[in-house]
Amino acid sequence: MASAMIFSAPRWAPTAWLLRTGDDVPAEIRRALVGSLYGTLPIYAGGVINTIGVALLATLRHPTPAFLCWLMTEVLLCATRLFVLLHDRRAARDGRRTFTDLYIGLGLSWAASVGYGAYITMTSGDWVSATLACLSAAAMVGGICFRNFAAPRLVAAMILLSLGPCVVGAIVSREAMLLIVVAQIPFYLVSMTIAAFKLNRMLVTTMQAERDNERRARHDPLTGLANRTGLQHAFDARRADGGQAIFYLDLNGFKAVNDRLGHAAGDQLLVAVADRLRALDWPDLFVSRVGGDEFVLIAPMLEEAVARRLSEAIVATISDDLYPIENVRVPIGVSVGVAFARAGDELRTIMSSADKALYASKSASARPTRAA
Asked: NCBIfam families from the entry (predicted)?
């Protein structure tokens, strides 16, 4: 199974502030928002072709140090951004740390370079180059907003860096008609930033809803443990790690509690059992409830003697103490069936083997704490 791409959170205070989305946003959604800032290679390629192309055409018309500096800066920034983008995508896929702060810093530098180009063309008196550069800057701002609204503060900073110099250029150019830019661009900056914040809130709300729906789909609403779907997902995710030991549990005496004290008491008992299973001190143990009073645990592949010890630990954890349910202290036992999954085995087949081992244990002894 391919691993998800996880990009590192920013470490520098300025970039952390720029990417901050709110205290109520869960960590996993924050990571996903950071990942969305990396976009895709076609989007990156479109921006590179546009900005380098405009800088090249303007420099051909004005081969002065200022324009040559702009062109070289664009080429250097685009090449460095491409390197960091490719590196970070590989690192995120492999679970290594990414250069998130550097990537964000390069994006800000690119926006400043676009703004610099707009400024020098506006003050050059060449209105063909100025029109081309300003149109390019405006087009890039649309992309900035709708590609980076996962971080609205970053959007505002990039717009300010790319279009802000146009305001200065309009004033320095001494062209009276361009003074309208002094009013237009601040209004544009504010409106696009507001739009980015609204889109960000919609995105976060949607991601939280998807996260909650996925959790409900994979978890038992009563105990909070994984359900059958979550169990299947965990089993599949662990295939690459080698064999697995499957422990199938069935509570002894649960039906009597349900019949005598009612279903509400039975639910309390199931929650208490789930809490005890969560507290088991065993490395890399996955716990699920697959229905009724049946639980399934997954551990990495174990030798039979070690699996027997874990079975005994499960029995002791569940059976040693009485459960205070509805002002009554009730005893509960458990039977355990064990099966071992190896590469290529299906969960359904292993569950069937563990289930047979479980009922063989029940048949072999009437004691409620017998482990297979």
From this structure: GGDEF
